[in-house]
Each structure stands twice: as structure tokens, then as C-alpha cells.
């Protein structure tokens, strides 16, 4: 299955759970893409010992079947640069992700 996860919040527990789901899907053999939009581009800054988002992202990015793309406009609004954990993309990437996926989940 091709799973798309759209994160539009920086709420730590929500994003931690979304990434746990993403990692579970990868472990089942699925392909997973995460698109970050709005305040979701700030997701990694909310990592804590209780909700270790950075650990989940690190695990996620180890898979060849995993991809993260972030809204470049949303990043620019927040004066945030592109990184491996938050690579800049655009609305065209979001469209392709939705069009190519079997399931789309939003958080």
C-alpha cells in the first residue's frame, strides 16, 4: 500500500503518533510519504523525552520506502531552511502525493 500522511500541526503527541504509524506501515512493507504543511513544518522542534519525534523521524528516514516533503511557502513564512528532516517542496508535491497514494491520512 502507498500511504500518505499529511501533518499540519506542531502538536508533539499528535505528530509522534503519526510518525509511529508511519514506521509501523513501513515495517509492514508499505511505502509512506509525509507532507508537512502549515505549522506542521515545525514538527521536529516539538520533540521531547516524552514524545521523541526526532527518534521516530530518524527511524523513518532509514527506509528506502519513506519520504518527507515540506511546503516551501510554509517554511518561508517561518524563515525556516530546508533539511533532510524537512526538505522543501511545494503544492505540486502535495498533489502528486495525494494522486499517487492508496490512502491519505491527515493529522
Record the SSE blueprint.
Blueprint: E1 2-7, H1 12-27, E2 31-36, H2 53-61, E3 66-71, H3 72-77, E4 88-89, H4 91-100, E5 103-106
Parallel strand pairs: 1-2, 1-5, 2-3, 3-4
Q: Would you give an account of this structure?
A:
It is a single chain. The protein is globular and about 35 Å long. It has one domain (2-106): 3-Layer(aba) Sandwich (Hypothetical Protein Ychn, Chain: A). The two termini are 19 Å apart. It is α/β, with parallel strands linked by helices and 107 residues long. The protein is built from four helices and five strands. The protein has a five-stranded parallel sheet with strand order 4-3-2-1-5, sandwiched between helices. Helix 1 runs parallel beside helix 2. Helices cover 38% and strands 22% of the residues. Strand 3, helix 3 (72-77) and strand 4 form a beta-alpha-beta unit.
List keywords for this structure.
single chain; 107 residues; Hypothetical Protein Ychn, Chain: A; five-stranded parallel beta sheet; Sulphur_relay_DsrE/F-like
Say how many strands there are: 5
- Average pLDDT, rounded to a whole number, is 97
Which of globular, elongated, flat, extended, rod-shaped describes the shape? globular
Strand order of the largest sheet: 4-3-2-1-5
Taken together, the total number of domains comes to 1
- What is the helix fraction of residues, given as a range? 25-40%
**Which CATH-level-2 architecture?**
3-Layer(aba) Sandwich
What's the total helix number? 4
Structural class: alpha/beta
Strand percentage lies at 15-25%
Low-confidence stretches: none
**What is the first-to-last residue Cα distance?**
19 Å
CATH superfamily heading: DsrEFH-like
Output the CATH class name: Alpha Beta
Rg, Cα atoms, Å: 13 Å
Biggest sheet record: 5 strands, parallel
Which fold name fills CATH's third level, the topology?
A: Hypothetical Protein Ychn, Chain: A
Strand-and-helix sequence, N→C? EHEHEHEHE
